[in-house]
Amino acid sequence: MNKFTTLSGIAAPLPLINIDTDMIIPKQFLKTIKRSGLGVNLFDEMRYDDDRNEIPEFVLNKPQYRDAQILVAGDNFGCGSSREHAPWAIADFGITCVIAPSFADIFYNNCFKNGILPIALPQEQVDVLMKDAEKGSNARIEIDLEAQTITSSDGDVFSFELDSFKKHCLMNGLDDIGLTLEKGASIDSFEASASQARPWV
Amino acid sequence: MSPKTLYDKIWDAHVAHEADDGTCLLYIDRHLVHEVTSPQAFEGLRMTGRTVRRPDQTIAVPDHNVPTTLDRANAATMTEDSRVQVAALDTNAKEFGLHYYPVSDVRQGIVHIVGPEQGWTLPGMTVVCGDSHTATHGAFGSLAHGIGTSEVEHVLATQTLIQKKSKNMKVEITGKLPKGVTAKDITMTVIGETGTAGGTGYVIEYCGEAIRDLSMEGRMTVCNMAIEGGARAGLIAPDEKTFAYCMGRPHAPKGAQWEAALAWWKTLYSDDDAHWDKVITIKAEDIAPAVTWGTSPEDVLPITAKVPAATDFKGGKVDAAKRSIEYMGLTEGMALTDIEIDTVFIGSCTNGRIEDLRAAAEILKGKKVKEGMRAMIVPGSGLVRAQAEEEGLADIFKDAGFEWRLAGCSMCLAMNPDQLAPGERCAATSNRNFEGRQGRGGRTHLMSPAMAAAAAITGKLTDVRAMMSDPA
Lengths: 201, 472
Description:
The structure holds two protein chains of two kinds.
Chain A: E1 6-14, H1 21-24, H2 44-47, E2 70-73, H3 85-93, E3 97-100, H4 105-112, E4 117-120, H5 123-133, E5 140-144, E6 149-151, E7 157-159, H6 164-172, H7 176-181, H8 184-197
Parallel strand pairs in A: 1-2, 2-3, 3-4
Antiparallel strand pairs in A: 1-5, 5-6, 6-7
Chain B: H1 6-12, E1 15-18, E2 24-27, E3 30-33, H2 39-48, E4 58-60, H3 80-95, E5 99-100, H4 111-117, E6 126-129, E7 143-146, H5 149-158, E8 160-163, E9 167-174, H6 183-194, E10 202-207, H7 209-212, H8 216-224, E11 233-235, H9 240-246, H10 255-265, E12 278-283, E13 290-292, E14 300-302, H11 316-328, E15 343-346, H12 348-351, H13 354-364, E16 374-377, H14 382-390, H15 393-400, E17 403-404, E18 425-428, E19 443-446, H16 449-458
Parallel strand pairs in B: 3-4, 3-6, 4-5, 6-7, 9-10, 9-12, 10-11, 15-16, 15-18, 16-17, 18-19
Antiparallel strand pairs in B: 1-2, 2-8, 13-14
Helix pairs in contact in B: 2-5, 6-8, 13-15, 13-16
């Protein structure tokens, strides 16, 4: 997994609440058996018309946001299904940070497995960054994961909260499975005692 | 000992390792796998030379992609990419030695219906699946939730999940449900109350007289949509109904093991003075048959209500409501019962069990669906289908003009050929009314099976209570 330390990038504003996983990546693209190549279908139904032409008004189709690396969105981003295709599509497009007032639980966890930093901030701070994002490619938002800060193009600095373990994994690009397998002895002993306590399982 | 919630008890019984910062390795008892969210996980195992730690606790069944038409044995009924995905599950299940119910097996069905039916889901267990509606299994008092594909790979390789504990929420439904009001109406009404983010960070325990009164099927419906309320999981404490449902199932314990299990299961309830981080209480008598009007599962109203105005809302919901009303092709202030529908879909992991089909059949008996209506019933498993045929329900459906399908997820998420056309309006018993969920441009109204059956007859959203005979 790619390491995430700092990021300075263009932020695309998507001021909608409850952006769900069906919006992020519609079901017809879940039939892949690969993780890559989904970026072109990110937000597919909002991004293309019935004839597969780009809808010019959609934010990621606008020239100034085509290289966006950050997304600023409304409350409850990523609600809906567990499909990891949603963060795969976001990462494949080139976005590695999503800022919103809140995230759905499964989506939030899925981000960290794919080098994406989801940042939850109070609504007022998201509002400031949303306005900043609306300035287009002249406004770059800076993120420092070590310091847990976001700096707007106007120099406003916001701190964000993050689980220390998730931060550690993201900063070092660590593979969860490898880390867990190091605790194999704990799993072995738990399994042995659980099979005594609950032999019917 | 300090008092505990049911969630606390199950959690504590499954922590294999706890780090100083509270990050835990939670041991997973049962891992359910389907074809859409697993191929990349198995590929990951192969690439790293890892294997499945507990194939004996890993259960695979294809459900999302599979056609539900009677001719599905014919490979031509599937698109190439669907066929590849189902074939990948077949290969992975065999290569890694998993328990497997292929499409040709009568026990095949939606993973969340097959699990309980086969006795894989039991009280006090941890159950995961790469599917958000894994919450369904919480109806047994098991801690069950959806995970992403990276976590699927993690569970395959280690039989554990890296987790931090959620907070405890109690949702109590007091008193008795009025006539015509079902488990679906309870769970939709709760989401209408809390919003789709109201449960974020929590595990919900549903309790109260109205929950106790529900059958296991109804309890599964309630827990199924805990995820639509944003919760990690939904739980209901096991009781005699739970034990009776589990007893004799193929993978439930037998004999002395059953007795030992039962003794532990009977300790699985929230202690009287347990701490709750949030409590919501709803009177059952205040719940009416519910429908959604918008494109979020929180857009819930009683069937007697009118389509709201966007300006009725606050904050970001004003724009969201405006967008929903436009997408749904509705007019602010119109009566919900004036909304005409084109299609009825009865099925899904929310409402594809035998009791759901019985409820629909009760309304449809001796009736016909409105002319021109496209109506389908997709049983949740091959065994539900067989039982419905045995009980004569299938004949009622066919006589009424419904298509009687084979088991699968079908039009709930439209990954198979069952999809809505742009603008097509559907009364659905499934769980999500997102834009495009049932097909690009499709319009979904969520409701109970009885309400969907009523809509099929009248061609409009309908208050099913007006169509029910008075109890003799």
